[in-house]
Design goal:
Length: 328
């Protein structure tokens, strides 16, 4: 009798798991998940907010309560997801590639095998903003200048280092490099305490609006040149992109600015239960048009391109949903 009961509970449990909804024992309570984002004036923070808002609206259906945390960015988020401090995180596609292959910040620690991809989101461009009065019109002009390359937990830091190296500039020797968070950089630029800053971000973003809205006139600097072309060929996770200047009417550029970029991606750990990942993925993709309206940086998104740029294995919960709807 007891055995039969255990068996039927187990079957029911398995069935519910298969359905991708909260298992029976979880349905009685709420499962809390935290999403790591970035600075509040970036695009990751509102992106985490958009996902959380959609999932939380259906709390009765999903039994999930998602909260959003402002963090230092991609590298911080990947590490926090892997240590279990965060359940989900947003990170750049290049950083996802590096973590899974044990490169860059993970060179000593080796491949981060538990990292799982869920889906990708908006494109992000390596954005170099400079004060007009600092006379910086190319990467080479950064020599000797005071430049924020980003905090160590951020995605942009390595992008800035790569761009500078491609132009033959050693960030430790050839310029005065700052390592503050992107959210603080616009203020420092407007106060005359730095000449320029790098930020890898989707557009439009609050931080860049802030940087271009002050009394000190600023412009975007092209992140181009033969060295950059060579680097783009060597590093598969970078691609050419541009910054549409119409999004920032106060910047002094007249034309769109060429640079290179990556994609924002949504990641989790192999340890996150399948049903949680399934439900969140389902909510975003079943209501794709609603999601797309939540930020102007999502205007280029299609369901199909949200499965591109992922190098970590896909989490089984996400894979299950994508197979069901024929996206995989
Ligand atoms: N790409 C940045 C990073 O990885 C964050 C950009 C944002 O917050 O929108 O740190």
């Amino acid at each position: 009798m007891k055995k039969a009961l255990i068996l039927s509970v187990a079957v029911l449990f398995g069935f519910v798991l298969l359905m991708g909804t909260a298992p029976a024992d979880v349905q009685a309570k709420t499962t809390f998940v935290t999403i790591g984002t970035g600075g509040i004036t970036g695009v990751y923070y509102p992106t985490g907010g958009a996902i959380a808002k959609m999932v939380n609206k259906k709390r009765k259906q999903y039994h999930i309560r998602a909260t959003v945390e402002s963090t230092g960015g991609s590298v911080f988020n990947i590490n926090a997801v892997l240590s279990g401090d965060l359940d989900f995180g947003i990170c750049q596609s290049d950083r996802q590639y590096q973590a899974i292959h044990g490169l860059a910040e993970w060179k000593d620690k080796g491949p981060q095998k538990d990292l799982r991809s869920v889906f990708s989101i908006h494109p992000e461009s390596v954005t170099l903003v400079a004060a007009d009065d600092a006379h910086i019109n190319s990467l080479a002009d950064l020599k000797g200048k005071h430049v924020n390359i980003g905090n160590p937990g951020s995605g942009q830091r390595q992008n800035a280092i790569d761009a500078l190296a491609a132009a033959g500039i050693d960030y430790k020797k050839d310029l005065k490099a700052e390592d503050v968070k992107a959210a603080e950089a616009p203020g420092l630029l407007q106060d005359g305490r730095i000449d320029a800053f790098f930020y890898t971000v989707g557009h439009p973003s609050g931080a860049i609006k802030e940087a271009t809205a002050g009394a000190r006139k600023v412009h975007f600097v092209p992140v181009t040149g033969p060295g950059i072309d060579k680097m783009l060929k060597a590093k598969p996770y970078y691609a050419k992109s541009f910054i549409p200047v119409k999004l920032y009417p106060n910047a002094t550029n007249k034309k769109d600015v060429p640079t290179f970029g990556v994609k924002a991606t949504f990641v989790t750990s192999a340890k996150t239960p399948d049903w949680v990942v399934y439900d969140i993925t389902k909510e975003v993709f079943d209501n794709f048009d609603t999601f797309k309206k939540l930020h102007p940086a999502y205007s280029v998104l299609t369901k199909k391109n949200m499965l591109e740029g992922l190098s970590a294995p896909m989490h089984p919960g996400a894979l299950k949903y994508f197979k069901e709807v024929g996206l995989k």
